[in-house]
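Input set for joint prediction.
Command: fold jointly, output tokens.
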Amino acid sequence: MLTQSNPDPLASYREDLALRKDEGRLRSCKRVEPISALDGESMRVEVDGQSAINFSSNDYLGLTRDERLREAAIEAIRQYGTGSTASRLVCGTNALTQSLEASVAAFKHAEAALVFNSGYQANVSILQAILEAGDWVFCDKLNHASLMDGCLLSGARWSRYRHLDLQHLEERLKTAPTQARKWIVTDSVFSMDGDYPDLAALVEIAERHGALVMVDEAHATGLYGATRNSGLVEQFGLSDRITLQMGTFSKALGGAGAYVAGSRLMVDTLTNKARGFIYSTAQPPAVIGTALKAVEVVQQDPGPKQRLWENVACFERLAKEAGLASRLSLPLQSAIVPVLIGDDRKTLQVSQTLLDAGYFAQGIRPPTVPPGTARLRIALSAAHTQPQLHGLVGALTRILN
Ligand SMILES: Cc1ncc(COP(=O)(O)O)c(C=O)c1O
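tokens >
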């Protein structure tokens, strides 16, 4: 409705979208459809009607189609129905949810765990709950948006250090009053860069300065660790020195939702203060059943993880032979391969050219990444075949040269 004081209250939305379009930053969803039966070639998809091999998915272990997870989801529906009916504290906690939380606590070698509906919701809610006025929070500059949003909403004093630069972190820590409570918050594997900090050194610095640590293992859960495959915290042997380990079921674990693991004190605090936990309907049983099975599968079946790291090694070898080592910042530290392009529009063009060649790697632009660092983000999976990796490297070599 038009009013006299503001003749077009929608104008700024229109202008904002027009500006984004001009800058090559307009976002819209592509339709991505699997085109083989559930048991078939899982990474072949149609992207807005174009057939391609999917290198954009975070299904690192190929578990989204795993028979064991699918059966667990169906069994949960059979037993509990389709919805959870209320928030966790009202009547949305059943035996399946309690088993999942117990199993995550054991997986992460923690006293207790709490499940959230998504990683985004978990991070925002956790940080809002644990950070109080007068606290200081120190973040890697490239932390995931959900961690940044949680810090912003918390009202705590927020300080950012250069990506992976632990010396800079220590300088920042020295600027905080000694008596202030300090938290250091970092991704373990960075979602757009595929690298990770020296967590052991980070924890030493934290302990020297009396700071608590929260780590986001969204892109590490199921992929690192010699015994349980629970993430980088396990790989670094730091389970009992990190106050909060957060992670998701939505990536390597092939489902949806998130967890946080820590002491009983911290989990009770979050149960009482994390608004996204308190004020949202619990996840449907199928999602909980899938996550419970996935946590079991990644601990008991080494096959998918082995295939993933073989694929990472194969991609790396092929890329080196093709002369792409410096272009792709090899060696890789994870299954994420950023291909830095810089310019936003050019990134979209390169992504489209690659799609025309039959390979789908999404172009990532600001604000997801800093201005001037637009890139293709290639994600490797256990479900890729070696001929698909050969094909991708061949296409990349032609396009990037
Ligand atoms: C590091 C990191 N944390 C949290 C999230 C959010 O998790 P979810 O997709 O489950 O909301 C993501 C990605 O989606 C992520 O990359």
